[in-house]
Design a protein that fits this description.
Strand content: 15-25%
Radius of gyration: 19 Å
Number of strands: 12
Number of helices: 12
Number of domains: 2
CATH superfamily of the largest domain: Periplasmic binding protein-like II
Distance between the termini: 33 Å
Largest sheet: 7 strands, mixed
Order of helices and strands: EHEHEHEHEEEHEHEHEHEHHHEH
Helix content: 25-40%
CATH topology of the largest domain: D-Maltodextrin-Binding Protein, domain 2
CATH architecture of the largest domain: 3-Layer(aba) Sandwich
Length: 298
């Protein structure tokens, strides 16, 4: 059984949730977003299934003409934001902290309980785990695995990067972390290993939602204009989940039933006060330190 999370200090470093002006009076010009290069906002999204409802309006709806949308794994998306290849990215929370980014309010990738796509496997008892093989595509997921193993089982294994092939990962290491679409290709109940859904484990440990990734950019971004795009895109997508499932499930190599359950039951998208508390707790337990000392949830 995991130990309860300690009380947060007032100086805990957390992603900065930018304040937003009155949306009713929102007026903006695309040129204001990037006056130097192009009229469209350069947006980077994660290439997994879970963000598709968030970007459906950008790829198929009213926001399509407002953005240049690109796709990458989470770590690459974060790197492209850091190097200014994109202006806004759907980045892991750990990267938002490291880069001292501003998090756009409204929507994110979250869960409250089981998430299904972040699975931790072990061939030894959890208290005996010394090495963890992980696909390092998401720093947040790796940090979450380390938190759960430390807080709930008292171990702090060495993390070794390895492609997400479960049998290969466990051939030379005690435990393996599989995330994103590769995790959806595995039925954990069919595997001969101990396993944990890290969304469930986080809720058991903290009683809070887990935030995996959020829209973020460098300080000084036009939060009002960007939020109108990101929330508008999700509003368009959330009413078209059936259409999204039909478009995605075969290409992702999973069943229609799993795709539907994943997008409607496991993954959540609203970034509210409880989610912000979850982010703050994650940052403290992960012992993350941003590039500067100014990151606060506002």
């Amino acid at each position: 059984m995991g130990r309860p999370a300690g009380r947060l200090s007032e100086t805990s470093q957390t992603p900065k949730i930018a304040k937003v002006k009155n949306a009713k009076s929102l007026k903006w010009r695309l040129s204001d977003l990037n006056p130097i290069s192009s009229r469209r906002l350069r947006v980077g999204s994660v290439s997994f299934l879970n963000p598709v409802p968030l970007i459906w309006g950008m790829s198929h709806g009213p926001q399509k003409d407002l953005v240049d949308l690109s796709f990458a794994i989470p770590s690459i998306c974060a790197r492209e934001l850091e190097t200014d290849k994109i202006q806004i990215g759907l980045v892991p929370i750990a990267e938002a902290v490291r880069q001292d980014l501003e998090v756009v309010p409204g929507v994110a990738i979250t869960c409250y309980g089981a998430v299904r796509s972040i699975l931790l496997f072990s061939r030894v008892p959890w208290t005996k785990v010394c090495t963890l093989a992980a696909d390092l595509s998401s720093r947040t997921s790796v940090q979450l695995a380390r938190i759960i193993l430390r807080e709930s089982y008292g171990v702090e294994p060495e993390v070794v990067q390895q492609p997400p092939v479960l049998a290969d990962m466990l051939q030379g290491h005690d435990a393996a972390l599989i995330i994103g679409d590769p995790a959806l290709h595995i039925n954990p109940h069919d595997e001969p290993y101990h396993w944990l859904d890290l969304g469930s484990e986080w809720l058991r440990l903290t009683g809070l939602p887990m935030v995996f990734a959020a829209w973020a950019g460098k300080p000084g971004i036009d939060v009002d204009a960007i939020r109108s795009i990101t929330t508008g895109s999700y509003e368009y997508g959330k009413t078209r989940i059936g259409e999204i499932v039909e478009h995605e499930y075969q290409a992702r190599g999973i069943s229609k039933e799993l795709a539907t359950r994943y997008l409607t039951q496991y993954i959540r998208y609203e970034l509210g006060k409880e989610e912000q508390k979850g982010m703050k707790t994650f940052v403290e337990l992960a012992r993350l330190a941003p590039a500067s000392a100014g990151m606060q949830v506002r």
